[in-house]
Design brief:
globular, two-stranded antiparallel sheet
């Protein structure tokens, strides 16, 4: 395996020169790499590098060992992609910052001349307006209070964002400083006045059609020593948004991604339309194959989220032809081949809209969301749960809430296909509060009768008492397992609600364990007092054997919600594994067919071996030729000793047996010994042939794996090189399915904690 340095020099050829400019460029790449790696696997996916959480955590962010550990964790192909993607991103950042620095340098003299007068006029305006609120500001606040979208801040125009952004402090770090500065500060190019120049005309920017992993090999970055003195040094600012602050407003891809995130959070169809429009603009304006591939992948996401599976698949394939391995395109490619993916995407958007309506206190509009959910997923419990949340948010209680609670229990948990769908914080909290809030007064009014129904026929749809705690328990547990990034307060509240449901179900020992786990999340949290009180009540009820209706249950309670969730996760895991195995079998069959054709053609073997030697690689056929030589030798022995001699012996007439009794016995014994020797020799040769044949099959598999990792110039075999260019896409799909299976297994592991 090549070293990290060799891979870096291959990805960024300028580094191989080893001069001062190359060292400066390497320091810049390292700073960017540390920053991007520190953002986690999600940020790395944007560069086309798919990394699991476990692999990501193995790499030490220490600059002294980062490259070596990253190369070991990612392996050669992914590390090469990582280095090339870093190089492209660094070039884009520096190009934008250099152009902005040039414009700021040209306006420096004009700004200096008017600085004093503007500061005086600003101070006079400040004194004259002291103690007052401008009409524009007051009007904006009034609009925010009355607007139904008040929860979302007003989106500024690009010029407003630029003017409102605080000025940066020009504090370039030392030349040998490798650590990233705090968020919001500048990261200047180290050195003595030398800038990293990017050719504006595009001369020398070569984008070949092929390369390792399909990542285009762009031009090498060069350090210019003749930068104009009037221009400010190019600087890179790494903020929370992970992009150049000045150029962000003008980047349609970044704006489209923000609109897409807003759509996922709110379910607002206007945001999806805006994201699609911006991604189309980005596809036209993107410079370079990688940027075009990223924009096209974003466009494919908008079509999938909008339920247009065929268009999503088409744009994902176009994105992968531009940027092989682009993670979003691979995800859309896989999901668009599943019939249920478009419906799940639309259901997720509807649930996001439901949570937004709850956040805006517009519960009446939830009925429309429930109606759309019923059309998309009629066999699921989602429409009934949203209607129950609408009733709870409308302040319905007691008998008024009971019909909605009864309808939800009759539908719950519904088709397992939807049992793992996260409802969202607003809907989840409303359902849990409504179910537990309805059953508590029943305890106080009816006492033993209600207690008895909590433990008898708990899965019967006619038992609404048991149905109430089943709903609260199942929804809270699924929320804990599916919530992406729950806050400490949110996690503790959900755990406490699980304990409440277990308490109602009379699983007092189990409830005490859950309450203890909830308290450990934050011992100073706002729910600790209630947790302690309820935990004490568990002990009281556990000892209340003489109380009517009390029948403390032992062991762990599963519940219908968690059982359906486990089944749903199991089905999705089975689907991911099935798709992965099918793809692996297809790849193996294709490779076996291609390798078989190469092995049988001596000219193709010579061509491939010649190109391997030119690339500094070992002969891929060496192991196979060794095994084939052994098989040829065994075949020769079988022909001369194992086949010819016995055949001749059988063809020759048997000699007449003469002599007395002992003579005939001696002749018979000699014949038996000869037959035994011949049989033993044949068995030995057959065994050696079987072993050699097995070794040949292994050598063919190893040859197929070796040929997949082609050199930069290819193997010189048109059929093989054409297949390997397609194999990169299949390999990316295989990686995605492996990651999906790993995520689902992790969720299965989380279920044991619930």
């Amino acid at each position: 395996m090549p070293t990290a340095t060799q891979l870096l020099h291959k990805a960024v050829p300028r580094l191989a020169q080893g001069d001062e400019k190359a060292r400066k460029l390497e320091r810049q790449l390292l700073k960017l790499a540390l920053h991007v790696w520190g953002k986690g696997p999600d940020r790395l996916k944007k560069l086309g590098v798919v990394v699991s959480e476990r692999t990501w955590s193995k790499v030490d962010p220490d600059p002294a060992v980062f490259w070596d550990q990253a190369a070991e964790a990612l392996e050669a192909k992914r590390f090469f992609r990582f280095a090339q993607a870093l190089r492209v991103e660094l070039k884009a950042r520096l190009s934008k910052k250099t152009s902005s620095g040039a414009s700021s340098g040209r306006s420096a003299s004009r700004s200096a001349s008017g600085r004093s007068s503007s500061s005086r006029s600003a101070s006079s305006r400040s004194r004259s307006g002291s103690g007052r609120t401008s009409s524009r500001a007051s009007g904006r606040r009034a609009g925010e209070e009355t607007s139904p979208r008040a929860s979302r801040p007003r989106r500024r125009a690009p010029e407003e964002e630029t003017s409102a952004r605080p000025k940066r402090r020009p504090a370039p770090p030392a030349a040998d400083e490798l650590a990233l500065p705090p968020s919001g500060e500048d990261l200047a190019i180290p050195g003595s006045g030398e800038d990293l120049a990017i050719p504006e005309s595009g001369d020398g920017l070569v984008v070949p059609e092929s390369g390792i992993g399909g990542v285009p090999d762009l031009d090498m970055l060069e350090l210019a020593t003749n930068a104009p003195a009037a221009e400010a040094p190019a600087q890179i600012r790494f903020g929370d948004d992970d992009g150049p602050a000045d150029a962000e407003a003008a980047d349609p891809t970044a704006a489209a991604e923000r609109a897409l995130n807003r759509y996922r959070e709110s379910g607002d169809a206007d945001e999806l339309s805006e994201a699609r429009r911006l991604f189309k603009v980005a596809c036209k304006e993107a410079d370079g194959r990688i940027a075009q591939g990223v924009a096209r992948a974003g466009l494919s996401q908008t079509y999938l989220l909008g339920g247009q599976r065929e268009k999503a698949h088409e744009h994902a394939k176009k994105a992968l032809s531009l940027f092989p391995g682009e993670p979003n395109a691979v995800a859309v490619w896989v999901q668009s081949e599943r019939e249920e993916s478009a419906a799940r995407a639309r259901v997720e958007a509807l649930l996001a809209r439901a949570n937004t309506l709850i956040e805006r206190e517009q519960a009446k509009q939830l009925k429309g969301v429930a109606k759309e959910l019923r059309a998309l997923a009629p066999e699921s419990a989602l429409p009934a749960l949203v209607e129950l949340a609408a009733a709870v948010e409308s302040m319905l209680e007691g008998q008024a809430l009971e019909p909605h609670l009864e309808a939800a229990w009759k539908a719950y948990p519904g088709d397992p296909e939807w049992a793992d769908m996260p409802l969202g914080a607003g809907v989840e909290n409303a359902v849990i509060r409504g179910a537990l809030g309805w059953i508590r007064p029943r305890f106080e009014k009816e006492g033993p009768a209600v207690l008895k129904r909590t433990v008898t026929d708990v899965e019967s749809k006619d038992n609404l008492i048991a149905g109430a705690w089943q709903l609260a328990l199942g929804v809270a547990r699924v929320a804990l397992s599916t919530r992406r990034r729950p806050s400490t307060d949110d996690q503790q509240r959900l755990m406490m609600q699980v304990g409440h449901a277990l308490f109602v179900a009379q699983y007092y020992d189990h409830a005490k364990e859950v309450y203890a786990a909830a308290r450990r999340i934050d011992r100073g949290g706002s729910f600790v007092v209630e947790i302690n009180k309820q935990e004490t009540e568990c002990g009281v009820m556990r000892r209340g054997f003489d109380r009517p209706g009390v029948k403390a249950k032992m062991g762990q309670l599963v519940g219908v919600g968690l059982a359906a969730y486990r089944k749903a996760i199991g089905l999705r895991l089975e689907q991911a594994i099935r798709e992965r195995d099918t793809l692996q079998q297809k790849i193996s069959a294709d490779v076996q067919k291609i390798v078989g054709g190469i092995v049988g053609d001596s000219q193709r073997r010579k061509t491939i071996a010649k190109n391997a030697k030119a690339a500094g690689l070992e002969d891929p056929f060496a192991r196979l030729e060794e095994v084939e030589a052994q098989l040829s030798s065994i075949a020769g022995e079988l022909a001369t000793r194992g086949d010819v001699a016995p055949a001749a012996a059988e063809a020759a007439p048997a000699p007449a047996k003469k002599g007395r009794l002992f003579g005939r016995m001696k002749q018979g014994l000699a014949g038996a010994v000869q037959k035994a020797k011949t049989a033993a020799k044949g068995a030995e040769l057959a065994l050696r042939k079987g072993v050699a044949t097995s070794r040949r099959n292994e050598a063919l598999k190893a040859l197929g794996a070796t040929l997949r990792d082609r050199p930069d110039q290819g193997w010189g075999d048109k059929q093989l090189d054409a297949y390997l260019s397609r194999f990169d896409l299949l390999d990316a799909k295989l990686d995605y399915l492996d990651e999906e299976a790993e995520r689902l297994r992790a969720r299965v592991g989380q279920l044991s904690e619930l």
